[in-house]
Amino acid sequence: MAPLLCDPVTGTGSTRRILIADDYPDSASSLALLLDIDGFETETVADGTGVLPATARFVPDVVVMELSLPGCDGEEVARGLLTLPPERRPRVIVASGYGDAARRSRLTGLGVDAYLVKPADPEELLARVREACNRASVR
Q1: Which string of b and e fits 89-116 if b means at least 16 CB within 10 Å?
Q2: Rounded distance between C-alpha atoms, residue 67 and residue 69, angstroms
Q3: Which of 2, 69, 84, 117 is such that its CA lies 20 to 30 A from the CA of 103?
Q4: How far apart are CA 21 and CA 77, in angstroms?
Q5: Is domain 14-136 classified as CATH 3.40.718.10?
Q6: The pTM is what?
C-alpha cells in the first residue's frame, strides 16, 4: 500500500516524496530502493549544495540525510531545511555515521525528527520515515 496524502475534499492522493542526501551511491540507492518498494517516490542528491535546490524543485515531505556531505556541512544543510517557511519545510531525518551525543542533541534540539546512526536498521528507518510523513501531513 503506497503512503498517500489524501485531500479530504477531492479524495485524491499523492505519493509521499522522500529526498535522500548521501554521497555514497550504494547507500543512497539501497535506501531509495527500500522506500520505492514501500510506495514512496524518491530522489537522491550526492552533495550538500544540492539539497536545498532539490528540496525547492522536488518538494519532499521528508529529507533523509547523511551529515558528511561534500560541498556543504550537513548540520548547516539541516539548519537551512529547518528554517524554511512551514508550508515548504520538509521533515528531516539524519542517518549518519556520526553518533556522538552532543551532535545528536544539537540537531534534535533544532527540530530534526529522528537521528539514526549508520548502519541503521532498515525497519527502524522505514518506521521513522513513516512517522515523519504522518507529522508532515498535519503541518
Answers
A1: bbbbbbbbebeeeebbeebeeeebbbbb
A2: 6
A3: 84
A4: 10
A5: no
A6: 0.88
Cell of 82: 529547518
Question: By three-state DSSP, how is residue 86 classified?
Answer: coil
User: Where in the chain are the domains?
Assistant: 14-136
Q: What does the alpha-carbon distance between residue 72 and residue 59 come to, in Å, rounded to a whole number?
A: 20
The grid coordinates listed for 98 are 556520526
Q: Are 126 and 133 in contact (CB under 8 A)?
A: no
- The torsion of the CA quartet 87, 13, 131, 96, rounded to 10 degrees, works out to -70
CA distance 64 to 124: 13
pLDDT, tens only, 30-83: 999 999 999 999 999 999 999 999 999 999 999 999 999 999 888 999 999 999
Per the listing, cell 531509495 goes with 32
